[in-house]
Amino acid sequence: MENQFFKNIEKKTGVKMNDVFELANSLQNANFKDEKTVRSIIKRVSQIANKPVSKELEDKMVQSIIKDGNKLDMGAITKMMNKK
Question: How far apart are CA 5 and CA 34, in angstroms?
Fold first, then answer.
């Protein structure tokens, strides 16, 4: 039943659940005060979501995340990407 649930999500979103799980695992121990790490995460989320992020938006997101890094979650990154 769980597999069918994930297959339905993959069908609707076009996002592979393995990619989501890998990203979630990488976020658990990520240092959100490190610019290089934050940029890498933004690029990965952009790839998974198939939503390009301009350099300007990436810079704004990086500054926002570094400033509030301890409050960051994947939903926050996705929300920022959808504001563009």
Answer: 35
Q: Per-residue pLDDT tens for 20-43?
A: 888 888 888 888 889 999 999 899
d(CA 32, CA 51) in angstroms, rounded, equals 21
The tokens for 56 are 């300007």
Does pTM top 0.90 for this prediction?
A: no
Residue type, 19: D
CA distances from 57 to 16, 17, 21, 77 (A): 25, 26, 25, 11
User: Which amino acid is it at 76?
Assistant: A
Evaluate whether 65 touches 72 at the Cβ level (below 8 Å). yes
* Average pLDDT over every residue of 39-67: 90
